[in-house]
Design a protein that fits this description.
Two copies of one chain form a homodimer. By secondary structure, chain A is of the alpha/beta class. Chain A is built from 15 helices and 17 strands. Chain A folds into three domains: about 170 residues, Molybdenum Cofactor Biosythetic Enzyme, Chain A (3-Layer(aba) Sandwich), CATH 3.40.980.10; about 80 residues, Alpha-Beta Plaits, CATH 3.30.70; about 150 residues, CinA-like (Maf protein, Alpha-Beta Complex). Chain A starts with a strand and ends with a helix. The mean pLDDT of chain A is about 90.
Chain lengths: ~425, ~425
């Protein structure tokens, strides 16, 4: 089955926002085993929208339209869809009631005649109730084709797609599609691909797709079969092979689990606390740990020590160490980790010191040189990295390497 | 003049990456006064690419093609463009030399026959030398139309566009396009638009476009005229009007200046230092300040105090205050700011304490309740916010509000 996405919105054509909806839908559709050959963006213009939609409906099995479902006259996605498909728009009573309820629930009292426009649906459409806004999602089937209309705001689009469209597509699909996610870190973005190039080159069922992030890489394995059990049986050997190749670089096989969640889970399991002593990352390591909800048993405090004086005063890094080796050194990274743990009374401490640039590099200590330290119950390990990219990118990589160092030590030094 | 963007790449169709190139190009083109009616994405497929490009070339004055300029057989953007335009591909000697030089410069010795494919250009094309990769950019003019080919990696595409395509488009344009950027913070995303709805509704020349970010909003004013002086004269009254309406919400009119840069600049001008005392933001305020290169005169340290104990021990927040008012209170936010400044010996301290959720909210203190404190040379100010959104979004808003509070105090409490 083929699918394509048409995003409607002047804000995309003006570059006011990035089209994250299409990336989300593309990734989800790939996971459902749908083939996507086109993505497009058009503005709120009747002629251009009609042309784009007509063409898409002719060439693809499923057309997903996002945006343009608002209450104003500019919003015409639904109207054009109904017109092209030759369907009248009729009032959908449940949606009307839900819109009225939404205004009450969110303490708004500015409902206008316009808002009822959002309760109009193409005759025969299947309505997807929207809990986070006033525009319902819609699925319209016609002549063997299928059109899915979704509101533009991501916090409305995503739950509707996940909870309502995914089950619909699965039911509609002649086969069962299953996928598994294998998430890695500590492997360079392109190295991960090289390491499985043979698997990618020979893939058919299951298929393998990699999703690179900064110093992390997600690998999705997708299989199609007559039943879920058969699909999972097709997936398993590939997942096993990935474990054989990447070993402990794999931090989770849970799609929604982040690296910081994996680290926090390990710390909780072992009843350990952690703190941070950061220089060039300036608080980002702690911020990412604290991004996990309910982390207060695990991290109680953290230190940002950007200058030598703070490294000495707050973390107790000896002045002669700072003088002899300078702040960006293995020795100081180690002393920061030890000092941070002591200051906070924590079982573990992650330290980061490096040259994030663009200034401050020397021939001996160039921009991108980063030391990551990890104190864990008495033992300290320091790793040296030579990172590429701009200031932001170097800091991001340093954060991932720090979290990953602690994760590895928690699984290897201490046993699972 | 109309322009459209076609991105070529399977990784976009699979959702492996977000299409940030198109957003970048769309924003830049809007700033150049070009009208963009379409954006599309196709894969490395001859038939579909040919159809998409042919259609685009017919309907738009300028077509920008990104991606598919690599050395492999899959990469066929240039080949298809040349074929549709009826131009032969010829070897471009300077590009060949540059490719060879690039391999030497980046210490690679794996140059292959394939790589010379990147030195082939459609006859008559104008070559844009690429300093950051091996694929040159190209501009091809034919039948009054214009095609611009750019490599996909953003760190290659952006400098090429900025340094070479922008001057080309400006020269080609019958008019001069100028724009000014006005950047605000502390005004809700939709409130900024409401406050200038009348200007937007009646706009023609100059035009006004808003670019909303979390708790920040950029407003671009663009005018077209026969000369730069005339265009700037058209822009100025609108910029003046924006200053009248938004006043000190405006933190800069420099396109590239960020909020944290504006804050650091003010601190440097006044010779002041700052520190941070963060709870729910977990280091993000400090991280954003330290995102500014060369900030070491201004911020030397910061504290993350996620639990009550750390607030007491590190910042000296009195225990009875924490017991009586709880950590998320105006009183504790104030004490954190005072204690942080004292601990660090800094002139100023930003503190943040709040309930970022999804758990931990109560009826009295719901998720989204955030207190931001600012100590500045003896005086402490605390602001209460009720923020919406998920944990991430609440934390992001809190960071902006904290930076903005300091900025306002630096310009009003102390005079410009």
């Amino acid at each position: 089955m083929t699918v394509e996405v048409i995003s409607v919105g002047t804000e995309l054509l003006l570059g006011n926002i990035v089209n994250t909806n299409t990336q989300y839908l593309a990734e989800k559709c790939a996971g459902l085993g749908l083939a996507m050959y086109y993505q497009s963006v058009v503005g709120d213009n009747e002629e251009r929208m009609t042309k784009a939609f007509t063409e898409a409906f002719e060439r693809s099995d499923i057309v997903i339209l996002t945006g343009g479902l608002g209450p104003t006259e500019d919003d015409m996605t639904k109207e054009i869809c109904a017109k092209v498909l030759g369907l009248p728009l009729i009032l959908h009573e449940r949606s009307k009631q839900r819109i009225a309820d939404y205004f009450v629930r969110t303490s708004r009292n500015n409902i206008t005649e316009n808002n009822w426009k959002q309760a109009m649906i193409p005759e025969g459409a299947f309505v997807l109730d929207n809990d986070n806004g006033t525009a319902p999602g819609l699925i319209v089937e016609k002549e063997g084709g299928c059109v899915i209309l979704l509101p533009g705001p991501p916090n409305e689009l995503k739950p509707l797609f996940e909870e309502k469209v995914v089950p619909y597509i699965k039911k509609r699909s002649p086969e069962t599609i299953c996928s598994a996610m294998v998430k890695l870190c500590g492997v360079g973005e392109s190295r991960a691909e090289t390491m499985i190039k043979d698997l990618i080159d020979t893939q058919s069922n299951p298929t393998i797709a990699t999703y690179a992030k900064t110093s992390e890489c997600d690998i999705r394995v997708t299989a199609r079969a007559a039943s879920e059990a058969e699909a999972m049986a097709l997936i398993q050997p590939t997942v096993d092979e990935l474990f054989k190749r990447f070993g402990e670089n794999i931090f989770t096989t849970h799609e929604e689990e982040t690296l910081e969640q994996a680290v926090v889970k390990l710390l909780k399991q072992k009843g350990l606390t952690v703190t941070t002593a950061e220089s060039c990352t300036g608080g980002l390591v702690a911020a990412r740990l604290i991004n996990v909800s309910g982390v207060s048993d695990v991290i109680k405090s953290g230190y940002i020590t950007y200058c030598d004086e703070a490294k000495h005063q707050i973390l107790g890094v000896p002045s002669d160490l700072l003088e002899k080796y300078t702040a960006v050194s293995e020795q100081v990274a180690g002393a920061m980790a030890i000092g941070g743990a002591k200051a906070a009374g924590a079982d573990a401490c992650l330290s980061v010191t490096g040259i994030a640039g663009p200034d401050g590099g020397t021939e001996e200590k160039p921009v991108g040189l980063v030391y990551v330290g990890c104190f864990l119950q008495g033992d300290t390990v320091v790793r040296e990295f030579k990172m590429r990219g701009n200031r932001d990118k170097i800091r991001e990589q340093a954060v991932v390497q720090a979290l990953d160092l602690l994760r590895r030590r928690l699984i290897t030094d201490m046993g699972e």
